[in-house]
Structure formats: C-alpha cells, structure tokens
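chain below, 304 aa
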Amino acid sequence: MPQAKTPTRTPGADGPLTGVRVVELAGIGPGPFAAMLLGDLGADVVRVDRPGGPGLGIDPAHDVTNRNKRSVVVDLKAPDGPARVLDLAERADVLIEGYRPGVAERLGVGPGDCHARNPRLVYGRMTGWGQEGPLAQRAGHDIGYIALTGALGMIGAPDAPPPAPANLVGDYAGGSLYLVVGVLAALHHARVSGTGQVVDAAIVDGTAHLSSMIHGMLAAGGWQDRRGANLLDGGCPFYGTYETADGRHMAVGALEPQFYAEFMRLLGIPGLAPVRDDVSRWPELREAVAARFKSRTRDEWTAV
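prediction:
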C-alpha cells in the first residue's frame, strides 16, 4: 500500500495494542479512520483492498488513514475471495467492515462465517443508520445522519441555515470513535471470556449520544431549544468568533469569571465586565467586543 506522507512506524511494533491483529475490509470514511486509530495504538492492521483501489478520490499516498497498515488485494466476488478473508479472520483479534447491512453476509464474510472460524474474534460493523430499522438500507452521508439526530440543528447562527461542520461530528466523532470504544471493550471481554462479540456502531446512535449533556441541560431549563441563544452555541458574546481588521477571525472562550475579567481588561473595555451576568445586555456587549476586534489585525490580537 502507498504510504501516507506522515510519520509512520513498523505496524504492530509498539503501543498498548502491540500484538493485536486487525483485519480491515477497506472502505471510506469512519471505518478506515477507526482502523487507523487502532494502528496508531500499536495494533497490526491489515487492510483488505478491493481490485481497483479505494474510492476516496485522492491519491492514496496522501490518505493519512492508510498509515501504519499493511495491505492485500482480495476480490471478494471471486470464488476464492471469501476464503482468503476468512483465513485472515481466523488469525485475527478484530475485523472491521463498513458495508451496508447484509452485504458482508452475502459475500460470505459476515459475523457468522467469521465466528465459525474464530470464536474469539471481535467483529466491528460501521454503518450510518444501523443494521436494522426503516433507514438501514438507505444510503447516507454525515450531514444526513447528524441532521436526523438533532445535532446539526444546534450549530450555527439563528438567522441562517445550520452550516455543514465538515464530516467530523458524525463520521468521525459519532462513528469512528464509538466503534473504537466498542471494539476495545469487546476485545477486553474476549480476552477474559474467550468469546468474541459483534460491535454494531451506527453514526446516528453515536451522534445522538454525543448530545447527551445538551439534552440534560435542556431538560433542566439551562438550554434553549434554538440556535445562537445559549452559552456554548455562539449565543454568548464571550464564547464565539470575531472578525479582525484584516478580515481574519479570533476564537474566544472566556467562560470562567477570572478569564472573563482578563478578557475584558485585554480588550480595553473593563467597564463592561458586569454585563457578563445580564443576558439582556449581551447584544450590547457583543457589539463592543466586535468593535474592539475590528480595530486590530489577527496577528496584533494574538500578540496581546
């Protein structure tokens, strides 16, 4: 496999997961990222590529999710393809796949086939909508998943549509990271009990779970169900972004009283410090802060 142009090491040579063998059935997005994280932690990852290469649309040499992996090309639709993957699964601790529900089973490399060869295997599955349910067979992308969970509706200004936050919230936070947590928990269970598990990670589930604190605050009356009206969503004038004189921007997070007081002092408007606790005057404070930031360039403010 072409190596990503980032520092790499010998796969499986060091790290807390040294000795753990992972088989990744190649895909795009959250599955490869999850396998990359396991490789970063020391696992020996073998990526099973399909003939014709990956579908990310960039030169594989620049795909950082390839790092710390070895690879083999297997045509799962060829007569000997499934058997070759099952041979790898028999010697592995973890297998990760990101097919639509039912595809791995139809190809002959589903959980049942793999566990028949290796009962200790942790079989990780990454989907958008989950293995079951009304949307399970639908195609999808990050923005659709996070929209359905409500997470997308928490982001952005109140007078504009919610912006697309790249594909970080769903694919990687709600998808990859939850898959890795599940795989590590199942790996621990397999080592204790000798029995593998199927880890079913769905992006909609993970993203909804990421929103737990916000839902708790909403239930407690500490969060309004509208954008740009809360402490952490841009509604607060001392937690947000401001344009500078050169058209660039500064990010501000001065929530605690001592940091807020220093923020006011450095901006040169200490007289407005009491406005912090008066929500009705937040628009006034925002205008004053915005005017101050517009008076200098980003580099000048960084130096402050």
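The longest helix spans residues 168-193. The two ends are 47 Å apart (CA to CA).
thats it, cya
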